[in-house]
Design a protein that fits this description.
two-stranded antiparallel ribbon, six-stranded mixed beta sheet, alpha/beta, 8 strands
Length: 228
């Protein structure tokens, strides 16, 4: 089998896993009408905000303010930008209303209490370009409410000269350097060869990436696609 075929098969297996078992919606990035410099899937975020805060009658200006609150965070330095985005995604923020007679409204970008209120998508072929840099296309991205919270990179297990360490290098060396405006949103980083899958952050050293082989203590450890 060729390297291309096996990596495509691995990608397909992961997409099927997230679609059928976790309820994610698969989208091919080429089908999304957007500029390569646009990282957020803004319409998904707008739809979430309008539904989640329907009773609050958010104005268009307020929705723009909410989006820009994370969109305009600088990716330089990347650690500071990523930390700032994480703070907002994890804790939300208080929005000052356009109507001064209304109290501040606490906004959450992800509904952790009612997870069915969120939109979950897994996207491949999502090409991203920072200004003046060659476009890059991560293997897979996981979006929640239009925000790319996890980047996934694959290497085939049958290729002797590549390992998941090469996937780690792709994220930590090339992507952090060349597409930081994507990486500032990515709270998580997953690397896999189909046999071993490990999870970390975009700042985690390779030796500290962790393989989640079971969720509960009473479960048996699993490798391969089930470990995902």
């Amino acid at each position: 089998m060729t390297k291309k075929f096996t990596e495509e098969s691995l990608e397909k297996s992961i997409i099927e896993q997230l679609e059928k078992k976790e309820g994610y919606t698969y989208v091919n990035g080429y089908s999304i009408h957007r500029k390569e410099t646009d990282v957020l899937m803004e319409q998904d975020l707008i739809s979430y905000l309008q539904q989640r805060y329907a009773s609050e009658n958010l104005t268009q200006n307020e929705i723009t303010t909410i989006i820009n609150n994370i969109k305009l965070i600088s990716a330089t330095p990347l650690y500071t930008g990523n930390k700032e985005v994480f703070k907002y995604l994890n804790s939300g923020f208080n929005l000052s209303r356009d109507d001064a007679s209304l109290q501040n409204l606490h906004i959450e970008y992800i509904d952790f209490n009612n997870i069915e209120n969120n939109t979950y998508k897994i996207v491949n072929q999502y090409q991203v370009k920072d200004v003046g840099v060659i476009p890059r296309r991560p293997d897979l991205l996981i979006f929640i409410n239009g925000i790319p919270v996890c980047i996934c990179e694959f290497k085939t297990a049958i290729e002797e000269d590549t390992t998941i360490f090469d996937a780690w290098k792709q994220i930590h060396n090339r992507y952090k350097r060349e597409i930081p405006n994507l990486l500032k949103y990515c709270m998580l980083s997953m690397i896999t060869d189909g046999v071993t899958s490990k999870l970390g952050t975009i700042f985690t050293k390779y030796e500290y990436y962790y393989a989640w082989k079971k969720i509960s203590d009473y479960e048996s450890e699993k490798n391969g696609i089930p470990a995902l």
